[in-house]
Structures are given as structure tokens and as C-alpha cells.
Amino acid sequence: MLRDKVDRAGEMAVFVAVAEAGSLSGAARRLGLTPSAVSRIVARTEARLGARLLVRTTRTLRLTAEGETYGRAARRILADLDETEAALADRGCPRGRVRVSAATAHGRLVIVPLLAAFVERHPGITVEIDLSDELADVLGGRADVAIRFGPLADSPLTARRLGETGRTVVASPAYLARAGTPRRPADLAGHNCLDFSFRRSEPGWPFRIDGHDSVLPVGGNVAANNGETLVQLALQGTGITRVGNFHIAEDLAAGRLVPLLEPFNPQDREAIHAVFVGGPAMPARVRVLVDFLAERMRGAAFGAHP
After folding, report:
1. What are the φ and ψ backbone dihedral angles of 108, each rounded to 5 degrees?
2. pTM of the complete model
3. What CA–CA distance (Å, rounded) separates 6 from 33?
């Protein structure tokens, strides 16, 4: 039993070599083994798991569904093992690649500006960042850390709260000079309101009126699927919009946008989390990145406008 446990990493390395080479003989050449030795190791792995990992014929070799699952896990475990050994060899200095997935606007405005300081602090880590409004599959190995907004779905992933953001109704001084300034939420009926194009559970903008929260339907001649576009349109004087404060902090501070209807702002908050595969095997490179983001974003003022 002890021998089986000791050999598992070696068996994983052999299986990954077979999957990457596409043949037993190719893996054998890469590993300096005989094809028969590679075949015996794969067969021993299959017997221990009680599952067929490869379908072999005289000409072809392909992975079964179980083989694909085992291969993904084996690559991750071997990468973590390499990272652990490298970290110990470098006196605990985390090394390796960490892949980060973030929403386009938040990534560009908040995450990317933090990376220079991170890689300076951890020169052994290479950061690969993907900015997209699509959710990356962390469990499937498409990212090591993903930044998520709002309530999190149930999953085996670990979540670390990084902060939160509020929302503000804004317009440019040029628009307000032309169309007038709304004093109460009902006044928005006479304004061009720029909203998100994707469907929400409560269509409209929330306000607190006479101590009661309500959602007010709004309408306008442009809708967009991201906050950056709405901010750009507002800056051009196209209309009024309501977006997350991280989008507009600089524009508010510079007076390029003006906050509206603040006495009626419900001060709703949206949590920001980093999600990742946690546990004892969590790579040090992932841990230090999440710690860094939590440290830097904890003091960021995304909850209220300047």
C-alpha cells in the first residue's frame, strides 16, 4: 500500500506523457523507458482506479472521459508539486504562472494597475491576465483566480472577499445644462436614461423614496452590455446612467461627471470576491496573489463616490 502511494506521482507523470505524446512509444522515448514498461504503468494505474483511461488500437490512442478527468487532475498535481519543490529550493519564494480572470472594465481599471507592484514584490511569479465578461471555469483549469461580483453560486471553490462596490446615477455637466437636472427619481421619465442591455431580475433602477425601496423603470435610446460603454456615452452628454463606482471614481473627482439623486440612493452594495481552488494543496503563487489583492483592494473606495 505504501509503495502504491509513493509511485502515484510517477504514474501520473507517465500518463501525462502518454496523453501528450499520443502514443506509448512516444511517451517511452520522452521518459527514457521501454514501451512495455509504459504500458505496464498505465495498466497498473487503470487497475488501481478501476477505470479505463485509454482506448488503444494498433494505430491510434485516445483518452476516455475518465482519462481526460484524470489527466487534468494529474497535470494540476504535478504542476503544484513542481511549484512546491521550486519554492523550497528558493527558500520559500513562490514561483510559476498564475492565471487571473477578471471582468473587462474592473480588470482594466482596478486589477491591472495593481500588477506592477505585485510582480515587483514576487519576481518569481508570472501573471497571465484574461479580461472578459464571460465567467472563466476555475474548476476546469481555465484560470487559477477569478474575480467575481455579486452573490456566488454554490461550488467547491474557495472565495475570499476583496471588497464591495456601490452604484451612482451620473450625467455630464453638458447634458444637465441642456436637459436639466432631475431632482426626484420620477423626473427621470423626462430624461434619456442609458441602461444595461442584459436582463436583470428587477428591470429598472432602485431608489429609496420616503423610506421605502422601489425600482423605477427607466428608458433611453442606447443600451450596452458593459459599464465602460455607458460611462463613455454619459461623458459625451448622451444621457444619464447608473453604474458601479469603480467605473467613475476619476470622472467624478475631475468633475467630468456629476452624481445625481443622492438623497434617494439606496446604497446597495455588490460584493467583490476572488474565487480559486483552495485547500492544503493550494499553490503558494495563488495564495500570495489573493492576499495581495485583498490587501490592496480593502482600502479602495468603491463604496461611495468621492
Report:
1. -70, -40
2. 0.58
3. 19
